Q: What sequence folds into this?
């Protein structure tokens, strides 16, 4: 499949006037029959907003009977166009695509799709792709890929993806540590010089990596209810918040609901790497509440978390509904405030709010709203919401939500882009979507993470994505050494301050 580039036809009139008629499509495509409908393409990139450094938005026709396809893309700020000709999918040259997007930054692309089908050529109605004025300054994404089966420790791994092209590499797979379950990788404000993740299983541990120095912590402690999970770094890098959870998985008997993951006990705390100390507080580890998903504010002065009243399990699992709360934190002393405040009461709405993520500019908290519980990735009704910290108002992110599960989100470093998981494709697999949010809080139509041949890639991928995050540069981890360290069971004990 070859990508070719055409120039727009500029007709020079003898009188000296120059006019721009239309695109010079190569014969015989110029005689294609026009049909008044948008093309049915996968992924649905019609009307999306993208950054200038995103990988090419290659796409397939959903109609398998198409024999050939010509795609021509014109820019609102250039007289040039780029094109792709082939059968299976639109395949744009990476460098050509980036150059074209840079020239049309803040403008729009007009996409013309031609097909050869049953011996006839057709031209569909043009559609637009908008090139955002906001650059996506992060290098790429990190995420887990995990089989959607119900075995806890099946093949899985933590991966990273360069967003400017299609290159994906493994950070760590559990083939390096057989039997291990690798949990979410968390960097400090997208900077992987500091990161942490937890390993479940017989060789359980929590990794804290700082500037290439790895420490494997003995995560379990007599003072904790479980392991060190759901981490979030303090902006100073001197602390990292975790949740300790006793988690269970059950199966529904109804066909529309599959799995329920819930806590039977949980609390939140802060870890200080320099001293290997756990900073606990009775306000954050109560007997009559479940506390989970801690995150620091961008200024480091507040710890946000989710809290629900404890309910009998399993009979009361649908009564577990989390609110978003906050408590003060003094980084100089490592001490919490003396009062917990609720900043969003989802329980009053009959809902559960989980997975809060503050934007790095301090304006918003994005969270997931579902009917109940703390693990919305299995809830079809789950949607992402936006809490405006200036006004205190919360609203669903309607433009980005779907009729199926939307959850697990994170912000880009400049707070103008976010990534999240969704089951909107087939209802079974979670895929990664990206969207833009402007200075006024307007959210764009999200787009599926681009792949070179998207239909082939996603049809053959039997993994689900979860816990995505942006990364400002590639994560550096010696996977072989890390695997050996996991299996060695050499652990640094933690202590309670």
A:
């Amino acid at each position: 499949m070859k990508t070719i580039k055409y120039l727009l036809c500029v007709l020079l009139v003898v009188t000296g006037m120059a006019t721009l008629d239309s695109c010079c499509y190569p014969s015989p495509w110029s005689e294609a029959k026009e049909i008044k409908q948008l093309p049915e393409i996968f992924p649905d990139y019609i009307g999306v907003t993208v950054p200038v450094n995103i990988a090419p938005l290659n796409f397939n026709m959903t109609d398998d009977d198409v024999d050939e396809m010509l795609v021509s893309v014109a820019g609102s700020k250039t007289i040039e166009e780029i094109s792709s000709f082939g059968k299976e999918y639109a395949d744009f040259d990476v460098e050509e695509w980036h150059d074209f997007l840079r020239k049309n930054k803040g403008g729009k692309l007009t996409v013309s799709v031609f097909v050869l089908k049953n011996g006839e050529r057709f031209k569909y109605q043009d559609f637009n792709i908008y090139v955002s004025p906001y650059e996506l300054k992060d290098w790429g994404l990190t995420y887990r890929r995990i089989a959607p089966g119900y075995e806890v420790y099946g093949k899985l791994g933590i991966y990273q993806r360069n967003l400017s092209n299609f290159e994906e590499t493994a950070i760590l797979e559990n083939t390096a540590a057989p039997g291990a379950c690798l949990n979410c990788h968390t960097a400090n404000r997208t900077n992987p010089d500091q990161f942490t993740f937890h390993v479940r299983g017989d060789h359980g541990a929590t990794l804290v990596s700082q500037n290439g120095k790895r420490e494997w912590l003995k995560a379990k402690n007599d003072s904790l209810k479980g392991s060190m999970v759901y981490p979030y770094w303090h902006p100073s890098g001197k602390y990292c918040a975790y949740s300790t959870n006793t988690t269970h998985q059950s199966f529904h008997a109804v066909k529309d609901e599959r799995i329920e993951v819930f806590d039977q006990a949980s609390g939140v705390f802060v870890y200080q790497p320099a001293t290997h100390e756990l900073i606990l507080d009775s306000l954050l580890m109560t007997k009559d509440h479940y506390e989970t998903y801690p995150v620091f504010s961008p200024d480091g002065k507040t710890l946000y978390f989710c809290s629900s009243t404890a309910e009998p399990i399993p009979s009361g699992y649908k009564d577990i509904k989390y609110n978003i709360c906050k408590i003060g934190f003094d980084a100089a002393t490592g001490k919490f405030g003396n009062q917990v405040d609720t900043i969003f009461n989802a329980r009053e709405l009959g809902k559960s709010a989980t997975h809060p993520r503050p934007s790095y500019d301090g304006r918003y908290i994005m969270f997931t709203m579902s009917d109940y519980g703390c693990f919305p990735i299995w809830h079809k009704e789950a949607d992402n919401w936006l809490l405006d910290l200036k006004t205190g108002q919360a609203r669903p992110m309607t433009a980005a939500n779907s009729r199926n599960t939307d959850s697990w989100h994170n912000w880009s470093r400049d707070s103008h882009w976010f990534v999240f998981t969704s089951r909107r494709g087939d209802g079974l697999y979670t895929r990664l979507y990206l969207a833009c949010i402007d200075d006024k809080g307007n959210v764009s139509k999200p787009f599926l993470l681009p792949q070179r041949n998207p239909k082939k890639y996603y049809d053959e991928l039997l993994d689900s994505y979860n816990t995505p995050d942006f990364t400002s540069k590639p994560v550096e981890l010696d996977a072989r050494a890390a695997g050996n360290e996991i299996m060695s069971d050499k652990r640094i004990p933690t202590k309670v301050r």
